[in-house]
Amino acid sequence: MIINKTNCNFEREPLAAPFGFKGGYLSELWQSVVKLENNSEQSGIGLGLQSTLWSDSSVFIGNSESAGNSMMFLATSHAAKAAIDMDWTTPIELLDQLLPITYEYAKKVTNNPDLRLTFALNALVAVDNAAWLLYAAENGISNFDDLIPKSTQAALSFKQDKLAGIPLMSYNVPLKGIAATMDDGYFFLKIKIGSDPDKDGNLDKMLEWDKQRMLEIHEAVKDIETPYTDSGSIPYYFDANGRYDSKDRLMSFIDYADKIGALEQIIIIEEPFPEEYKVDVSDIPARLAADESAHSDEDAVERIELGYSAIALKPIAKTMSMSFKIAEIAHKKNIPCFCADLTVNPIMVDWNKNVAARLAPLPGMKVGVIESNGHQNYRNWNDMLSYHPSHGADWIECHNGLYNLGQDFYAQSGGIFTPSNHYNSFV
């Protein structure tokens, strides 16, 4: 297949309040839109969500928020133009060609020779999604199952009828906000740790803040029961975003969890260490998940060999193509996967949901899971829901902590093949 025409644009979406993680705070998120057209006049329009703070915090910290977003959008635009006249059969082949080109360009734009590969992958999501929809149009595909490469089908062979919605408790969510979330029926908490309470980089203060945060939350929810876990208790998912500098510091956090009775409720501790901290973690008494450090399938293999026992798949942050590759590797090595969010828009939630719905439940869970926190963080979430081509469908929103996936969800693949008039108007 040959692409002969491209276009791209973006929309700025304000957040309802500053959104804190990795020691920083976001105020808005840019929604990128890419159109790819081939010489048969078939086209695909893909969406992306930019997060410089998540993908490479040094870019976020070293520039204004808008400047960092502009750098990533330039990388997206460069990738779309580079795709013109490339010869490819599947979107995975296209990504293999575009990733090194985009990565080198992004290093120059950010003036950062040590740029994290995830920055380039984040920039490529809209391009990759557009390529999958162009591929589907060219090959007469209208169901997500038919997009899954044969080599990945075993990894995505489940058909969940329910997914637990995972809301996000960032640094500034008060206990009353957590209580309100539980009152809404949610029963799986993702909790950001790694705060910088005095903005001085002191890791001892971070650890004490994290311990106190865990204690307050555990005391508030420890007696709540749920039928969706093996233990009957609320599961905890701690996300450190690489803020812990050593196993000893992490073990201090885990030992404290054990002391207060919270350890058995910890389903996952995600990305505790910086990616360059490559030590064996198989002796840590908690399931550690790789997220940012598992840029590629090769990186995922390395993390698994270091003892990581779960992988966060992020089709909405590291491309669907790379997520297919990582899911295949993890399945072969018997490592569970789950789908985490990047505070994406409702349409991208359903791109993620198509993968999450086909993954086996995490150990300790009786249902599948998917993180989605856009409803908590976007100022205009209700407007964004209206941009979804299947707006009003039962599967789009979480009800009592669950996404209900009936036959319509699978028949329509979450609506991802249906054009969105709102986003299509941008390109």
In short:
The chain has 427 residues and is of the alpha/beta class.
Commentary on this structure:
It is a single chain. The chain has a 7-stranded parallel beta sheet with strand order 5-6-7-8-9-10-11. The protein has a 3-stranded antiparallel beta sheet with strand order 1-2-3. Strands 12-4-13 form a 3-stranded mixed beta sheet, covered by helices on one side. It has helices at 52-55, 57-62, 65-82, 91-110, 117-139, 175-183, 203-221, 247-259, 297-305, 315-318, 320-332, 346-356, 374-377, 381-386, 407-412, 421-424; strands at residues 3-21, 24-38, 43-49, 162-166, 168-169, 189-192, 236-239, 266-270, 288-290, 310-313, 337-339, 368-371, 402-404. The chain is α/β, with parallel strands linked by helices and 427 residues long. α7 links the parallel β6 (189-192) and β7. The protein folds into 2 domains: 3-142, 2-Layer Sandwich (Enolase-like, domain 1), CATH 3.30.390.10; 150-424, TIM Barrel. The protein has 16 helices and 13 strands.
Spatial order of the strands forming the largest sheet = 5-6-7-8-9-10-11
CATH first level of the largest domain: which class? Alpha Beta
Q: Please give the alpha-carbon distance between the first and last residues.
A: 21 Å
CATH architecture of the largest domain: Alpha-Beta Barrel
CATH domain topology of the largest domain: TIM Barrel
Could you tell me the number of beta strands? 13
Shape: globular
Uncertain residue segments:
none
Put simply, the count of helices is 16
Q: If you average the pLDDT, what whole number results?
A: 96
CATH homologous superfamily caption of the largest domain: Enolase-like C-terminal domain
**Which strand-content bin applies to the residues?**
15-25%
Class per helix and strand makeup? alpha/beta
